[in-house]
Amino acid sequence: MQQRLQKILAMMGITSRRKAEELILNGRVTVNGQLAQLGMKADPKKDHIKVDGKILIKPEPKIYLALNKPKKVISSLHDPEGRTTIKDFLKGIKQRVFPIGRLDYDTEGLLLLTNDGELTQKILHPSYRIPKTYLVKIKGLIQENEIKKISQGVRLQDGLTLPAQVRLIKQNENNSWLEITIYEGRKRQVRRMFDAIGHPVIKLKRIAIDGIKLGDLKTGELRHLTEREVNKLKGL
Ligand code: URA
């Protein structure tokens, strides 16, 4: 969050707000290498602020992680009911990271985590149609016309779903396995889509988000995203 520089300096206990103004006026403060001006705003989380050439505030490095969330794990950092949360899988990560979106308690697979609030907001914004791919095991033998229906859009309580890509992988006498890519992130969306055509989901696993693949990351394991993957998410 952007705040007035003199307020940041005072908050950091460097000096009083009035004295901080003097420091700024006397050209002793820089922000990202530029001489600070009175009234200037900065973000202590993002900007390098120096007084007399000494770094005062170093922005926390951004980290970007992929977790293969197991089933029966809550995708938040705390659960009032005391169930296992993703926090149990973040041992060794010093930064406070947050999940980008959610996976249901019973859904496994790829969950992205970061301390980059800006990127999280961008990705979760409804106008940003990020592709998310799932492997689904459903009850019954799905028919061609039902696959077409799912891919064109099904009516749910909260409206028609956007077109999705759906591919049948295999079937046996009781179940069908499919891959589905959706471009929105409504609550329990995939489960509700298949419920709506009479084929309840038995197993659901997210295998990709915007080209970032779960790959061979084992259940409960964590990895850092590559620079390339992060740039892709940022749209760079
Ligand atoms: N759709 C669902 O139904 N559940 C998830 O966890 C993600 C997408």
What's the gyration radius in Å?
23 Å
Structural class: alpha+beta
First CA to last CA: what distance?
23 Å
Low-confidence stretches: none
Query: CATH superfamily name of the largest domain?
Result: Pseudouridine synthase I, catalytic domain, N-terminal subdomain
* CATH architecture descriptor of the largest domain: 2-Layer Sandwich
The helical percent reads 10-25%
Question: What is the total number of structural domains?
Answer: 3
CATH topology of the largest domain: Alpha-Beta Plaits
The helix/strand order is EHHEEEEEEEEHEHEEEEHEEEH
Question: Features of this protein?
Answer:
236 residues, alpha+beta, Alpha-Beta Plaits, 3 domains, binds uracil
In short:
The chain is α+β, with helices and mostly antiparallel strands. Helices cover 21% and strands 31% of the residues. The strands form four sheets. Strands 7, 8, 9, 10, 13, 14, 15, 16 and 17 form a nine-stranded mixed β-sheet that branches. Strands 3-2-5-6 form a four-stranded antiparallel β-sheet, with no helix packed on it.
